[in-house]
Amino acid sequence: MREWLVRWLTKPMREKEAYNSVALTAPEEAVDKPRPKVRIAVTEALNGKLLEVMTYQRNNHGPDWKIEYYILEEGKPLAEQMAVVMTMRGMGV
């Protein structure tokens, strides 16, 4: 009974060792991919749309995202408004 219990408790470790010994990942998955530093989204609001800009800030206690919201005007193209926001952010305004 004791041998069975030891085998049963150590089975996940033995399976993990066997799994790790075989290279199952594709080459493109083995390379660390760059993580996004800025995310941009358009969010529906009650009376219009918001441009949501999230910026990644490294933190020792886990990832932290700084979120900024900008109100979008109805008549102007989205690309133009995004360009204005990104220019303002680049200038530090």
Quick synopsis:
Helices cover 41% and strands 28% of the residues.
Describe the protein:
- Helices cover 41% and strands 28% of the residues.
- With 93 residues, it is α+β, with helices and mostly antiparallel strands.
- It has one domain (2-91).
- It has a three-stranded antiparallel β-sheet with strand order 1-2-3, with no helix packed on it.
- A hairpin with a 2-residue loop joins strand 1 (38-45) and strand 2 (48-57).
- The chain starts with a helix and ends with a helix.
- 0% of the residues are buried.
Order of helices and strands: HHEEEH
**Rg over C-alpha atoms, rounded to the nearest angstrom:** 24 Å
Beta-strand share of residues: 25-35%
In angstroms, what separates the terminal alpha carbons? 71 Å
Count of discrete structural domains: 1
Residue windows where pLDDT falls under 50 for at least 5 positions: none
Quantity of strands, as a count: 3
* Number of discrete helical segments: 3
Q: Bin the helical content.
A: 40-55%
> What about the largest sheet?
3 strands, antiparallel
Q: Which class best fits the helix and strand makeup?
A: alpha+beta
| Oligomerization category of the chains in this entry | single chain
